[in-house]
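User: Can you predict the 3D structure for this chain?
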Amino acid sequence: MSALQVAQIGAALASLSGVGGSGPNPLAKVQKSLGLDVLSVGSSGNSTGSQSSGTTVEAGRYVSNRVFVAAKQSTTGYSQVEVDVDLSKHLKLQTRLGNGTATTQGTTPENDPGSSLGMVYQFQY
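Assistant: Here is the predicted structure, written as structure tokens:
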């Protein structure tokens, strides 16, 4: 974990526990000034899960009550745009368009590991 990730987790835990919430959150001010709903820095694998995508920056915003648009960029060159559309209370259309990180022979836009289209049904209990 990077120092920035540890600071984000600490600020989130403090706000959940009611202890502070006024502590330093390194990205909150930047997120607010840019008008974003989501701004995060992390480290994870790519969408295929087989390779590391290095450090990733994600920024996103609700452009309407039911449409969320976000972009991800990593230090290894991986980038992805996502659009989520809430079709109903529980049903969501999710699209991802990315450049992928695998350079395998025969990769086409149809089988690009960074791109997907799908539906998600969520039920909270």
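Confidence is low (pLDDT under 50) at residues 46-50. The radius of gyration is 17 Å.
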